[in-house]
Amino acid sequence: MIRNRKLANQLFGLFALLCAGVWMFPLYWAFVTSIRSEQNVVGGGGVLPDEFNLASYIDVIFRTNLMRWYVNSVGTAAITTAVVLLFGVMCAYALSQIKFPGRRLLYGVVLLSFMVPPQALYVAQFILMNDLGQVNKWGGIILPQLIVPVVIVVYKQFFDAVPKELREAAVLDGASEFKLLFKVYLPLNWGITTALGIVTFIATWNEFFLPFLVVTSETQMTIPVGITQVNDAFGVAYARIMSVALLAAAPVAIAYLIFQRKVTEAVMISSGIKG
Fold first, then answer.
1. pLDDT (tens digit, 9 = 90+) per residue, 213-245?
2. Which of 244, 208, 239 is CA-nearest to residue 227?
3. Contact by Cβ (8 Å): 191, 265
4. In 10 A of CB 258, how many CB atoms?
5. pTM (two decimals)
6. How far apart, in whole angstroms, are the C-alpha atoms of residue 232 and residue 124?
7. Which domains does the chain have, with CATH numbers?
8. Nearest in space to 153 (alpha carbons), one of 270, 3, 12, 15
9. Contact by Cβ (8 Å): 51, 40
């Protein structure tokens, strides 16, 4: 029995290593391509790196608006994350702890919004951003991404689990609703807030289609959209394309490696799984 279990564990471990290798190979190939000259890339280099040429990275950093794209991505992602968490926690607290007419109906609307795919709203959002004069501005990228129902649902689940005696004691001490939220309820859920913040930031950073629609000025583009301009500027330049793709993915990959436990926790929570 023990031998069979050890054998099964070894087989599962071998399978996991195989899956990791399959997943890692495209990243490895992108890196190998990015450190080759364009002539070598087109000439069909082998799988193993045969040169270490940083010309593509230098061209991308100094001959494109890469740094500006970084600023736009960091700025829009940070503002979106902060506003989403603020609005989400206040809405969830109201739905969970404040009794008002239509509360259940409003929560039902929040749940029903999960049935609407984001892609179905892009045209209407673009028209609205154009009417508001937010095309080629940060507002055009940020405003359509402020509605994240999963944040409201997750916060509400945890606010519902807080003992009512804690709220009653704070109310007897004269605490207002805002003080209850930010001094009592929110500190109990900093782990959830951190996890949701990381996932929201990564999702906003990786968003492509919406910024692609509302931004046409190269200086206002985010990293995912800016990658397309490298292709247009240099033609079919595979080394440069791979270079900017790796540079664009690096911050998110580093953030995930640092906060992977929180990211996993947020994914499990948003899927309805409580640890």
1. 999 888 899 998 988 887 655 566 788 888 888
2. 244
3. yes
4. 11
5. 0.82
6. 28
7. 69-270 (1.10.3720.10)
8. 270
9. yes
